[in-house]
Amino acid sequence: MNLARLDLNLVVALRALLEERNVTRAGQRVGLSQPAMSAALARLRRHFDDDLLARVGGHYELTALGQVLLDRTSTAYDVLERLFASQAVFDPAGESREFKLVASDYAVSVFGAELARVVHAQAPGIRLRFTQTPPAVVDGTATLLSAVDGLLMPHGVISDFPATDLYDDRWVFLVADDHPDVADRLTRADLAALPWVTYQRTYDAPAVRQLGMLGIEPQVEVSVDNFQLLPLLVAGTRRIALIQARLARLLAPIAAVRVLEPPYEAVPLQEALWWHPVHTHDAGHIWLRETAARVGQELAGHGT
Length: 304
What we know:
Layout: H1 9-20, H2 23-30, H3 34-48, E1 53-56, E2 59-62, H4 64-84, E3 97-103, H5 105-122, E4 126-132, H6 141-146, E5 150-154, E6 163-169, E7 171-176, H7 188-193, E8 195-199, H8 206-213, E9 219-224, H9 230-234, E10 240-244, H10 245-251, E11 257-260, E12 269-274, H11 283-300
Parallel strand pairs: 3-4, 3-5, 8-9, 8-10
Antiparallel strand pairs: 1-2, 5-12, 6-12, 7-10, 7-11
């Protein structure tokens, strides 16, 4: 593929056409007349040797290739937008820019809220957008990072991308205040016998892999994609849950639960900001990373 022969404006047209599935609306969206958008569609059809949009009755539907291109075009558009938004000089006090970070609700609660406070004070024109970590983050890390500014994720889940360490944390267990089988400590036998509440794909986490190495197979009764729901799903039940100590401290007032130490030496948790190498030398992104590192250092100074 010779990129020098391609008109990158067609990426804008392709995204609009695939998402709108209507030539007129797609043209209005990107500021092109109906004839100009029709001409763009014709060029795209020649390039892909596919109709992309097929008329069905009185409307258009995506062809099989058009459906494949829908997500890819959105990702490519985001990458191009971030590429051409790169800056040699960045003045946070006077800039207007949005940074998109992928993070779990844990990372947003413990770290993101403080980062947002600092960014607001130093750069009122900067916007932060947090989106939930997808379950397939391990399988599609490169694609994910290419379309965002960063990923908040502990070490041990992904690798081979640049990262800035932020703060450390540790794993603890939650049990109900009135748990009938647990007094002031948990045993390994309790971990194997009691029902669990787990977060999404916890088998990707080093802490859960460690349980497997200890010969403990959690009996998962409930699984959720939100760490902050764990206390509510533990309170008043026989369930147990593995949670980060910093988040457990924040959530302690919302549910009748107790925090107990693991009955083994748990692997440490080191949170980091990961990014795609394309962002490494962008002045705005450098400012974001340095700001995140400072916030992480302040958080680390408060202990776990």
